[in-house]
Amino acid sequence: ILQIGSTISQIQFEKTDGAGEIASTAADGTTAIKIIARTKHTAGNILEVVNGYGAGEVTQMVVNHTGNVGIGMGSPVGRVHLAGNFGTSEVSGIYIQNLAPTIAVDQLSPIAFSTRSEGWGTQHAATIAAGNADSYDGGAYLKFSTASIGQYSPTEHVRIDNVGNVGIGTTAPSKLLEVQGSDPQIRLKSSDATDAIIKIDAGTAKDSYFTFAQNGSSKWTVVHDLAGTDKLSIYNYATDAHRMTFLPDGNVGIGTTAPLALIDARVSTAATALGTPDMMLGAANGDLLDFSTI
């Protein structure tokens, strides 16, 4: 039994015929926690934390001769190697907790990444962080930040808010997916000789909309299944009118949502003056055929 006084700052032990170890044996002598220091540092593990004794030993953590750390396994293949039977638990792996003394909105639990360059050296280059959504009721958002070339502080580019909305270029997405930016563009490109498809799939007896807006105000929309009849219509918000409608049989209506012919063009009011055309057909040479209300 070794007793250590209050003035002793370290314990040093040396063993020449194998691994040295510090062990804590349970009262019944059947289990122990051991810290094992190997004498050979060119192979194997140089530090092991073991729970149990003899055949019942379970390796909890190791540091091997290359500096790799294994938690829950004895042969780490990466700088930090975490292993275990996690099952379906969301908290049994890596758990990051913010212990700030004062609770506030936007406090973070981050994972930070660095990169190296000749001009900037080692710099903080990217972050994945969970933020506090509400100081009283909690909740969380997840933010993804990266540093551009020549920048040494990451900028947030993607956020998943507390209700699941995803924002690209915005920290406050109002829809399931919202993209903001200067001259924003979205590209869908096939990587081989196959089709590229965008599908809008509405529920049963519901319409599908593709809407054009300006500065937050809706202007035009293309709507499918208008009134549950499988029609495709072009609608104008300013006039609250369906300007053009396509039927499954090929009929096209202008000024009507129920065209009776291949092209069915109608006006809702008479012309304002004699000879003012309601409909005009033009040729490339400039000739016109107009239909006027008299």
Q: How would you characterize the overall build of this protein?
A:
The chain is mainly β and 294 residues long. It is 0% helix and 39% strand. The protein contains no helices and 20 strands. It is elongated.
Brief description of this entry?
With 294 residues, this protein is mainly β.
Spell out the blueprint of helices and strands.
Elements: E1 20-25, E2 32-37, E3 45-51, E4 58-64, E5 69-71, E6 80-82, E7 108-117, E8 121-132, E9 140-146, E10 155-160, E11 166-168, E12 177-179, E13 208-214, E14 217-224, E15 232-236, E16 241-246, E17 252-254, E18 263-265, E19 277-282, E20 288-292
Parallel strand pairs: 5-6, 11-12, 17-18
Antiparallel strand pairs: 1-2, 2-3, 3-4, 4-5, 7-8, 8-9, 9-10, 10-11, 13-14, 14-15, 15-16, 16-17, 19-20
**Overall 3D form:** elongated
- Write down the secondary-structure element order: EEEEEEEEEEEEEEEEEEEE
- N- and C-termini, Cα separation: 117 Å
Largest sheet features? 6 strands, mixed
Strand % is 35-45%
Ranges where pLDDT stays below 50 over 5 or more residues in a row are none
Fraction of helical residues: under 10%
> What is the spatial order of strands in the main beta sheet?
1-2-3-4-5-6
